[in-house]
Write a structure and sequence with these properties.
Elements lengths: L4 H8 L5 H19 L9 H27 L2 H8 L2 H13 L5 H18 L8 H24 L4 H23 L8 H25 L5 H6 L4 H13 L5 H24 L2
Length: 271
Amino acid sequence: MGFSSYLLMKIGLDSISPFNLVALRFGIAFICMALIFLPRFHALSVSILAKGTLMGILLFLLFSGLVYGVNHTTASTAGFLASTTVIIVPILESILKRRLPNKSIILCILLVVIGLYLLTVKDTFALDRGSLYCLLAALFYAIYIVVLDRIAKNEDTLLISIIQLGVTSLLGALFMLCVETPSLPETPIQWGAIICLGLICSAYGFVVQPIVQRYTSPEKIGLIFSLEPVFSAILSYIFLHEVLNVKGYIGAALIFSGIVLSKITITKAIP
């Protein structure tokens, strides 16, 4: 999702609402990529359109959870919670392949669960709303990666990735009109954040990923994001002055330890 995307979303949400941000971000990405690769649309088929629509729906669910999560918690916390995708992907793959995760993955899951508790649970035994949204985003991202693995190896992944951007923007716009008041960023910094989200984090990130995933496994794609929470926390501290309490830092360290251990385990298991 990008090391700086949580920071940029936090800046963007200062002036516009969550679905509004999704619509703008992915609208910019779709228009940019559609114009650049317009000749490729001659190869558009019903199958590619259907698969692009499915991926767009999953992408919309993912970013709806993530944007609402960032809006109700810190950018650094959102980075750590969203990074649990790297744990969820092998669990989903184990379910689909009908085999239990190995003991190392189970240990990773336990570390992450304990870390999640320390990082996000406050005075009572309940996750706050922002944390729940971020964990839902991590789940949908894991589903996105697993489904993309089944799609990316058989179709024109460039067209699918461009179509998904348009579908995500359209869904964001529909929900924005239903539950929010449409608006535009108010300052150059906020516009810059939205444009960077659209062009770099979305247009580049979610067009390159489907192409790359044709040549690798979903587990390895999940591992690419294993360092994301660390950079998210560093950038949030530098630019937003976000500081976790002691329990939060211990929880974040446990989550990161679980992610790194899972990375080592999965890397050894995948040729």
